[in-house]
Amino acid sequence: QVALQFPDELLADAVEVAGRMEAATGAEMFVLGDTTYGSCCVDEVAAEHVGAEAVLHYGPACLSPCRKLPVLHVFGQQPLDVGRCTEAFRELYPEQQSCVVVLYDVVYAHAMGELEQQLCPEYPNVIFSRLLCGDPPGPAVPGEERKFGRRFLVEAAGGLQDYAMFYVGAEGLALTSFMLTWSRCPFSSFNPATGCGRRETLNVNRALLRRLYLVERARDAGVVGILVGTLGVAGYLTVLQHLRELLRRAGKRSYTLAVGKPNPAKLANFPEVDIFVLVACAQNSLLDSSDFYRPIVTPYELELACNPAREWTGNYLTDFRDLLPGACAYVELPAAVPAAEAVPDVSLITGKMRATHLCGPPNPQPPPSTALACRDQTRALAEISPAASFLESRSWRGLEQQLGQTPISKAVQGRRGIAIAYEDEGCEQP
Predict the structure, then answer these.
(1) In this structure, what are the phi and psi dihedrals at residue 34, rounded to the nearest 5 degrees?
(2) What InterPro entries does this protein's entry cite (predicted)?
(3) Could you tell me if 215 and 196 lie in one domain?
(4) Could you give the dihedral angle defined by the CA atoms of residues 296, 206, 146 and 141, in that order, rounded to the nearest 10 degrees?
(5) Do 109 and 57 belong together in one domain?
């Protein structure tokens, strides 16, 4: 039993492909439609519902490693004019000793061998990245970069910052993630659809300022909603637990929400949440939240806000697996700091004082008491529930019974007709 996963634009060909695959292999094929999260991720949950033993993923992919099922990626082959791409590269990099790393969208991987044959004899310092599907076979060697399902080896003494980046593909989330992650490298791109090459003028500093502003919003937040944006990327359960513990140590309350693809209407149902953090693949984590009721940050930005041991180094991380124990960018939470010894901090947005100390491990639950005590149930619930606390602060809380406060009266006949003109209302003459 094999699951076939198609993006929305390729679902029209799904039936014919499934029929040919069944005739050629004899295996039972299932077509997965209406993916809950981004189509670039493998939908392992839907595949497990039909008992699939493997997944064939068609179309663009983020190449995030999966947890359980074996996956075969079929990227497709979008047309690429290799000659025009070579000319655009020469125009952008006239110096033949230029150090350049070539990145590309997965749909153009079939043409990279021909492009490499055209450029490498002329440009000896050009490095072509390779696609990396699934977990890497072993530890990285010195100078090797492994990010976004790409792998390449940097041989320059100064490291990656001495290289420029040349991207083959259209403008999109993948290119934005590349530019933020390797922000110290100048970028250029070639769009195969238009046949034009250009130097990328995306203001990375402006984008980073926006993200750092969201970090400050996360520091001010008291209630954080953890959005589950993937159920298939390896390590998502571990990072959920890591974020919960991080927020608890920072003295913030958290909700864990599985809402599928986030949109403003869904998240507006949680007005008590001050900010959301999205746990998704590297390409879908940078969500533009300008239209949302509350901002959305990445796990890395939440770590910058809540973990005093993590400092901004200029390197932006979009893959949440880099934050987990054992990863290259993992930073352990420091020991608990008593509230009396905490250094006071002032919000750069509201100008108010805020707590910055870290709590210790959770205290053991005290033994249950048998003594009777009178307690306000609403306020007791507000102490443990952010939703109840938010409701307590509102002046109108919905329909209330008001028992004993409303005078008793007999039933009377109400108005008849429609709201624009009841029968007991006089008609005005024009």
Answers:
(1) 55, 60
(2) DHP2, DPH1/DPH2, DPH1/DPH2_1, DPH1/DPH2_3
(3) no
(4) -130
(5) no
Distance CA 354, CA 71 (A): 47
Residues 6+ apart with CB under 8 A from 253: 222, 223, 224, 247, 386
pLDDT of residue 317: 87
Specify whether 268 is located in the same domain as 327.
yes
Query: Considering the domain boundaries, does residue 300 fall inside one?
Result: yes
Confirm whether 391 is domain-assigned. no
User: What's the rounded Cα separation, in Å, for the pair 31 and 22?
Assistant: 12
Q: Do 332 and 210 share a structural domain?
A: yes
Q: Angle 386-392-396 (CA atoms, 0-180°, nearest 5)?
A: 125
pLDDT of residue 37: 78
- Kindly tell me the burial class for residue 60, based on how many C-beta atoms sit within 10 Å of its own C-beta (0-12, 13-18, 19 or more): buried
Q: Collapsing DSSP states into helix, strand and coil, what is residue 421?
A: strand
60 membership: H or E segment, kind and range: none
SS3 state of residue 211: helix
**Is residue 350, in this structure, part of any structural domain at all?**
no
Rounded to whole angstroms, the Cα distance separating 155 from 141 reads 11
Number of domains present in the structure of the chain:
3
Can you state the percent helix, strand and coil of the chain, rounding each to 5?
30, 20, 55
Token pair belonging to 133: 């599907």
Directed axis angle between helix 112-119 and helix 82-92, to 10°? 50
Tell me whether strands 187-191 and 417-418 are parallel, antiparallel or unpaired.
unpaired
Residues 168, 192: Cα–Cα separation, whole Å: 7
Determine, yes or no, domain membership for 291: yes
Q: Rounded to two decimals, what is the model's pTM? A: 0.78
pLDDT at 323 over 50: yes
Q: What Rg value do the Cα atoms of the chain yield, rounded?
A: 28
Domain boundary among 168, 202, 236: 202
Q: Please give the residue range of the domain that contains residue 142.
A: 82-202
Which residue, 74, 91, 115, sits at the end of a domain?
74
Q: Tell me the pLDDT tens digit for each residue of 138-181.
A: 777 788 888 888 999 887 777 888 899 999 998 888 888 888 88
**Strands across the sheet containing 71-74:** 29-32, 2-5, 54-58, 71-74
Give CA 90 to chain center in angstroms: 36
